[in-house]
């Protein structure tokens, strides 16, 4: 992760605002020569000139900072860090030195040390947008999303045209699950700087998280126009195309991802499962074997998906199949669950994900509840649920629990359970099975469940 924008700021600051103190004329001349070389991209020549500067004046702080910038751009992180250490030791009043060392520490994954440096720079220069931006990045990398957002807020308040700060705030918002907020920031960032690295790719991730597959595909495509050798973009576009039913497009993207990034395991996993669903078993076995070699930790998850595909291949078509029989789980309706709070949390998440909430009233003793729950997690019905619903299980016990919710959502328990309720993301009651429609789930046909979910899944703008 090269953080070149901060170094550009650092270098040009010292290129035009040199406080030379008692430096000799010869040292200044070499410093200016280094600056001119660095402007032309001659980094090694610049470092040679800065070496001469510091031989003549070992206390020339700007020389250390300029040489650190050139060393960083050449990948010499240790040398850059040493120069910033010297600059701080000699001239501790330079916030730019703390900013630069913080950037090097970020690159070396010393996030706490980097945050300390950015904080020091801010204490010396409270309106230092670049230091807030750097600290925002490190707090994002540490998973401290709320604090990262606060820092990027400050950076864009100081400089409303700071494209990278909007981009980093988008990353933090994405980390919090605020996909709409992330997309808004990506939009602003790319309006300011259409060439910002990974702008389209990261916005595509947010669209994909919202199941807005068309926009995700469009952004992945734009990202690939900018960087045609981005294996992750091909892979993720393939997943989006697969979810839309474009199997040919998905396979083409998986192929390209593997061609460009043969050391990535996930494209092999996905292509292997796609081969398996097409009954191309030999090719599937080859790809899955490669997947497990590269990412052994994915074996159990992928093997479970493979078993499911094989089972579906041997099952009758959904239009003539009943919901599958199941083994009863003991904790489908956990004893200590607070259904009211779970519904509140699901509604909050539904607003972010633009989904609806499906409540399933029942109990662990109810066999048909287990049948319906399994059906809602597999096959065509499961796909609709993953894309459009969040499920909350509401335990009725022996008909004596959560009666306030039973009343609120107009459930008639004497008609049997499972009973199903559909809520919009704002909590409005859209549907309630008041007449025992799901009570005999084991006798329900898969196609009828799919039709029901399709009717109530709503649309996404």
Quick structural gist:
The protein has helices at residues 4-16, 25-40, 43-56, 61-73, 77-90, 95-107, 111-124, 129-141, 145-158, 163-175, 179-192, 199-209, 213-226, 231-243, 247-260, 266-277, 281-294, 299-314, 339-353, 367-375, 379-388, 403-408, 446-456; strands spanning 356-362, 389-395, 419-423, 429-432. By secondary structure, it is mainly alpha-helical.
Which key features would you list for this structure?
461 residues; four-stranded mixed β-sheet; 4 strands; mainly alpha; 23 helices; disordered N terminus
Helix content: 55-70%
Order of helices and strands: HHHHHHHHHHHHHHHHHHHEHHEHEEH
Q: How much of the polypeptide forms β-strand, as a percent range?
A: under 5%
Gap from first CA to last CA: 35 Å
The secondary-structure class comes to mainly alpha
Number of helices: 23
Q: Flag low-confidence runs.
A: 1-5, 7-23
- Total strands: 4
- Rg, Cα atoms, Å: 29 Å
Nearest-integer average pLDDT: 90
Outline type: elongated
Strand order of the largest sheet: 2-1-3-4
Q: What can be said about the biggest beta sheet? A: 4 strands, mixed
């Amino acid at each position: 992760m090269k953080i070149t924008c901060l170094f550009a700021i650092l270098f040009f600051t010292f290129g035009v605002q040199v406080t030379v103190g008692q430096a000799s004329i010869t040292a200044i001349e070499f410093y200016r020569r280094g600056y001119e070389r660095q402007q032309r991209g001659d980094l090694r020549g610049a470092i040679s000139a800065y070496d001469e500067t510091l031989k003549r004046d070992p206390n020339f702080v700007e020389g250390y900072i300029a040489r650190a910038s050139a060393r960083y751009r050449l990948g010499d992180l240790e040398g850059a860090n040493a120069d910033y250490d010297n600059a701080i030791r000699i001239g501790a009043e330079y916030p730019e030195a703390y900013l630069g060392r913080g950037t090097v520490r970020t690159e070396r994954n010393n996030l706490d040390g980097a945050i300390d440096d950015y904080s020091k720079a801010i204490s010396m220069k409270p309106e230092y947008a670049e230091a807030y931006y750097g600290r925002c990045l490190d707090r994002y990398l540490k998973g401290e999303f709320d604090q990262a957002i606060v820092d990027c807020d400050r950076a864009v308040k100081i400089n409303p045209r700071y494209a990278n700060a909007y981009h980093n705030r988008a990353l933090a918002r994405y980390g919090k699950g605020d996909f709409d907020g992330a997309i808004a920031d990506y939009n602003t960032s790319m309006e300011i700087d259409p060439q910002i690295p990974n702008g389209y790719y990261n916005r595509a991730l947010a669209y994909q998280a919202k199941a807005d597959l068309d926009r995700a595909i469009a952004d992945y495509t734009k990202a690939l126009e900018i960087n045609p050798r981005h294996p992750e973009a091909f892979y993720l576009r393939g997943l989006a195309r697969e979810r839309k039913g474009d199997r040919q497009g998905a396979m083409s993207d998986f192929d390209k991802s593997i061609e460009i990034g043969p050391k990535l395991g996930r494209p092999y996993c996905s292509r292997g499962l796609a081969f398996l669903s097409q009954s191309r078993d030999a090719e599937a076995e080859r790809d899955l074997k490669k997947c497990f070699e590269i990412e052994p930790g994915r074996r159990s998850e992928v093997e479970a998906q493979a078993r499911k595909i094989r089972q579906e291949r041997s099952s009758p078509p959904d239009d003539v199949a009943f919901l599958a029989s199941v083994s009863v789980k003991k904790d489908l309706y956990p004893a200590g669950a607070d259904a009211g709070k779970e519904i509140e949390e699901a509604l909050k998440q539904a607003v972010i994900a633009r989904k609806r909430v499906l409540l399933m009233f029942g109990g662990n003793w109810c066999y048909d509840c287990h049948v319906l729950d399994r059906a809602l997690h597999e096959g065509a019905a499961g796909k609709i649920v993953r894309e459009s619903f969040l499920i909350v299980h509401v335990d009725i016990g022996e008909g004596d629990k959560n009666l306030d919710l039973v009343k609120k959502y107009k459930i008639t328990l004497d008609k049997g359970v499972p009973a199903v309720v559909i809520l919009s993301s704002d909590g409005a009651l859209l549907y309630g099975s008041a007449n025992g429609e799901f009570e005999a789930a084991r006798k329900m046909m898969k196609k009828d469940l799919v039709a029901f979910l399709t009717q109530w899944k709503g649309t996404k703008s």
